Amino acid sequence: MPAAEDSSEQRWQALPLRDELRGQHPYGAPQLSVPVMLNVNETTYPMPQEVVEAVTAGVRKAAAGLNRYPDREFTSLREKLAGFLGHGLSAENIWAANGSNEIMQHILQAFAGPGRSVLAFPPTYSMYPLYARGTYSQYIAGIRGEDFVQTPENVADQIREHRPQVVILCSPNNPTGTAVGLDVVEAAYEAGDDSATMIVVDEAYGEFRQAETPSALELLPGRPRLIVSRTMSKAFALAGGRLGYLAAAPEVADALRLVRLPYHLSALTQATAEAALDHASALMANVERIKAQRDRIVTELQQMGLTPAPSDANFVFFGGLDDAHAAWRHLLDDGILVREIGIDGHLRVTAGTQGETTAFLESLRRYLS
Ligand SMILES: *Cc1c(COP(=O)(O)O)cnc(C)c1O
Questions:
Q1: Is the four-CA dihedral 261, 257, 217, 77 of positive or negative sign?
Q2: Is it the case that residue 3 has pLDDT exceeding 60?
Q3: What are 138-152's pLDDT values in tens digits?
Q4: Which of 136, 196, 216, 340 is surrounded by the fewest CB atoms within 10 Å?
Q5: Any idea which residues bear N6-(pyridoxal phosphate)lysine here (predicted)?
Q6: Ligand 1 centre and the CA of 101: distance in Å?
Q7: How far is it, in rounded angstroms, from Cα 284 to Cα 301?
């Protein structure tokens, strides 16, 4: 029996865990509850009422059939996702899962694994090393240039050096907010020719990109090792619905069928995602509002003498703070939660509604004065 004073952590650490899990902690930003939550890049607008009604009707219909397993091929959902993406894609180009987190896990289960490696470029999404760990793959932390910029030459050289089985380019990148040019994706793909490397572009924030920034979807024709990953968690305001997806050559989706668990997408998830897709235009109207607040944050932070990075996402990464933790604390005392990302003098803030953005900017201005 464990001594009464043993913490729960001491108790689970005493279990026969895999060696690489020993001493690790579960991933997750603190889920504090404050009036203005700008820390995990959710859409902060409430779900439009027409979407609430459509989801409810779809789920009600699906509920009547819950005695049966769902459509394992989620064909109707894949058709709608292809229609939303355009670019001449059809259902056979699409794969979906419970969040793009599960999409990435499927990709690494199929293409990485023991004795194989995954290359990504920090600072980037902190889940990438955890997907690698969970699939027994080696994680290689690549290197970025000055101001975290990635150039075609730099990325290609690192792929030729490491010959990884999978490369993840996060574009727009979390936490820096900036997208890479298509020249970087093309160079990565070519550099991976020799090693037959799968190139994954994580476009979780793709819908928020600036008008002049293209999507890597444009590069899919003729590139069977290219995968573009998307999610409904951000632009579709569906973080709670858990629906991620990818577009790629049909054979990529076929390969992923080898590793998915049976019926991994519940009938309720499929119905929810389909209803949201049927109302994409109402949801994309909020995306435009969020983009306006995002651009406003960049402009006003510059006026405050801070150094925001150009953003193609629904958040802004900014530096120039003497003490990022003190600024974070001041904002929290004002009821505003932003994200500390462990980079000196920097914070990341999600673009919220106009009111939330004003509250953030005014609080930060008070802190600086
Ligand atoms: C938020 C985010 C995701 C989304 O994950 P889901 O599992 O789809 O909610 C994926 N990639 C990046 C870089 C993100 O920031």
A1: negative
A2: no
A3: 999 999 999 999 999
A4: 196
A5: 234
A6: 6
A7: 26
With b for 16 or more beta-carbon neighbours within 10 A and e for fewer, the 172-199 pattern comes to bbbbbbbbbebebbbbbbebbeeeebbb
Rounded mean pLDDT, 203-229: 98
Give yes or no for residue 43 CB within 6 A of ligand 1: no
Q: Which atom of ligand 1 is nearest to the CA of 101?
A: 7
The domain limits of the chain are 3-47+282-368, 49-278
Superfamily of domain 3-47+282-368: Aspartate Aminotransferase, domain 1 (3.90.1150.10)
Classify burial at 106, counting beta carbons within 10 Å of its beta carbon; exposed 0-12, middle 13-18, buried 19 or more: buried
Global confidence as pTM: 0.95
pLDDT digits (tens, 9 = 90+) for 31-46: 788 999 999 999 999 8
Confidence of residue 230 (pLDDT cuts 50, 70, 90): very high
Nearest CA to ligand 1 atom 10: 204
Place of tokens 């030729």: 160
Decide whether any atom of ligand 1 lies within 6 Å of the 244 Cβ.
yes
The domain at 49-278 falls in which architecture? Answer: 3-Layer(aba) Sandwich (3.40)
* 100 CA distance to ligand 1 middle (Å): 6
Other CB atoms within 10 Å distance of the CB of residue 149: 13
